[in-house]
Description:
Mean pLDDT: 92
Strand content: 15-25%
Number of domains: 1
Number of helices: 10
CATH topology: TIM Barrel
Structural class: alpha/beta
Radius of gyration: 18 Å
Oligomer: single chain
Number of strands: 11
Helix content: 25-40%
CATH architecture: Alpha-Beta Barrel
Amino acid sequence: MTRCLLTFDVEDWFQVENLRPIFPPTSWETIPRRVTESTRVILRLLAEYEIRSTFFVLGWVAEREPKLVRDIAEAGHEVACHGYGHILPMQLTPVQFRDDILRARQVLQEVSGQEIIGYRAPSFSIDRKRLAILEECGFRYDSSYHPFGIHDRYGHLGDLGAPVMPGVYRLSDQMVELGLPVERVGLLPLPVSGGGYFRLYPAALFRSLVRRAIVRCGHYTMYLHSWEFDPAQPRVKGAGVARLFRHYNNLSRTLPRMHQLIAMLKSQAGRFVTAREFVEEVFAYQVPITSST
């Protein structure tokens, strides 16, 4: 069986880094929220295929949409932490970062009724110092390691030691790092997870790269954002051509391509698990976990 982790970052469309020049955090309360309905599209998709998943939710969203977070938890999904206000961790001091994750975790635990043990940094912006803070604060896993070094916002964690399996690192007795898959075609690194790449590549190419990642890693982790399931979201100008392209390109293709991807993963004997379940397996094994277990 191939372990498949479908993960979703829950944030509203105007909170993303690409649109930050237009929508600074001070403006957020004045903008109609769309995050509930876009996330419910995901919940309906997962229910259709009887898949349990992990949702990395902003504390800001949980405070304003508590029923949404409760519905995620009651549907059997894992609620994890995406920070509070979607400020890149590398733009926060260590003290500010600690305050951000603790504030977010408190509201997420109160609203969801779950213990929050997982974290993903906005834009994968993290370093070793902030990883250590996560562990000190009681988090059991982080999923902020994206080894696609070309991206201008992704953090650089350096040598994480020998992986338990490709892309998965047991940092200590208490902490696991879940990386995102990147495949190489010749000298070209191609991310095989993430909505921007998912919407940009031809669909058949993306699925082909996923099959390669499964063969290489024995598992597969996918992430998308809730706003990527909202093709009717407002179009704005003024953030720059590259930023707007990253945000709006092929939004209408997200949902139909997810149906295709899930069907392919099921055909590959995919067993869909939450990040928490996957991490518990990592802690349970003293030897590398293979796809045959």
